[in-house]
Amino acid sequence: MTYFPPTPEQPHPFGREFTDLTAAISHLGFDGVLYTFYPKPMYLCSKVQPVLHYSESFAPFVAHYIKSNYGNRDFVLRLAVQNRKKKPIDWWNEIAAGTVSHEERAVTEDARKNFGIQYGLSIPVLKGAYAISGISVISLNPCPIHFQKLKKAHIHQLFELARQYHARIVNSKEELRFFLQPLLDRLNGTQEKIIKHMLTGLPMKSIPHTSGVTPRYAEKVWSNLREEFGSITTNEFIYLLGMLGMFDDLDDLDDRSDL
User: Fold this and answer.
1) Please, which of 29, 134, 191, 208 could form a disulfide with 124 given CB 3.0 to 4.6 Å?
2) How far apart are the C-alpha atoms of 25 and 245, rounded to whole Å?
3) Which class in CATH covers the domain with range 16-172?
4) Residue 259 CB coordination number (10 Å)
5) Domain ranges of the chain
6) CB 67 within 8 A of CB 115
7) Alpha-carbon distances of 173 from 17, 53, 103, 190, rounded to whole Å
């Protein structure tokens, strides 16, 4: 197991676990780390942006990234979706290989020119039905040999650190709810009624008796919801809602539906 070195007491804007991850990455010789959770519905709604946990050195660029809506033209995201074997993504190697569009390249050039991020490496850790995630590490040193030596020496540790941190995140119901809260907040009353019905385990044909919605319309809404959460199956969606604690919120949905 990879060692997370202890860190001195200080504010933890993204939690103590991320502070420890940042310390471990710094110990390896990198200048910053970013954990990213990309909801698949980013492709369906430009307002949905990735969730970002970042070290201090990443902060200025992350603010610029969000303001510039870079999440919807980030080649790391595109390559991670296509990356079946979860291979590391060396930013400038991909650019040199010609796998990056001009618009996508502009994001990485902006990071280098205006924020001093000379080199970056992304480690995919999840490619799931409704999201993908991973960590990215950076070097502010302009020497390419320095960065390649760091990458070669520590690539296995980077994968292990990414895996450990991601496991801590997804095993937390509170963290998972935070990641997907923007999607949950957009649910309307009808969608909530249909979700409540599906969580009871009753067949869709009985929904007129429980929610006053026709089965045909309910099926269409349910299908659209599954699409919005990343084209997941009914079983995957119910599992996800269970992880988010929706089973515990059935009474709350009842109350809101009656308003």
Assistant:
1) 134
2) 33
3) alpha beta
4) 5
5) 16-172, 187-257
6) no
7) 15, 17, 36, 25
Q: Is the pLDDT of residue 256 over 50?
A: no
Q: What is the CA radius of gyration of the chain?
A: 21
Cα(10)–Cα(119) distance, integer angstroms: 28
| Average pLDDT, integer, range 2-14 | 58
Asked whether the beta carbons of 147 and 138 are under 8 A apart, the reply is no
Please report, as a single letter, which amino acid is at residue 211: S
> Over 50: is that where the pLDDT of 74 sits?
yes
Name the percent of the chain in helix, strand, coil, to the closest 5. Answer: 60, 10, 25
Tell me, yes or no, if the pTM score tops 0.70. no
> For residue 103, which amino acid is it?
E
Supply 134's token pair. 């991973």
Q: How far apart are CA 208 and CA 218, in angstroms?
A: 9
**Longest Cα–Cα distance in the chain:** 68
